[in-house]
Write a structure and sequence with these properties.
By secondary structure, the protein is an all-alpha fold. 81% of the residues lie in helices and 0% in strands. It starts with a helix and ends with a helix.
């Protein structure tokens, strides 16, 4: 299997874009979590309940 240099550069470019996107999403989530303050455990509980309800086909 031979890969051209251009194909490798495209793969690296996609990986860098994914890394930058994950960093931005992480910053946004961190900012929202900072605003929520004491409600962070409650937010986690709500997410767990929504996932369980979705798995049980209640949503």
């Amino acid at each position: 299997m031979n890969l051209d240099v251009e194909d490798l550069l495209k793969i690296v470019l996609v990986l860098v874009i994914v890394l930058i996107a994950l960093e931005i999403v992480g910053m946004v989530i961190e900012g929202v979590a900072g605003l929520l303050g004491p409600f962070r455990p409650l937010l986690g509980l709500i997410i767990v309940v929504l996932i369980v309800l979705w798995l049980l086909d209640r949503i």
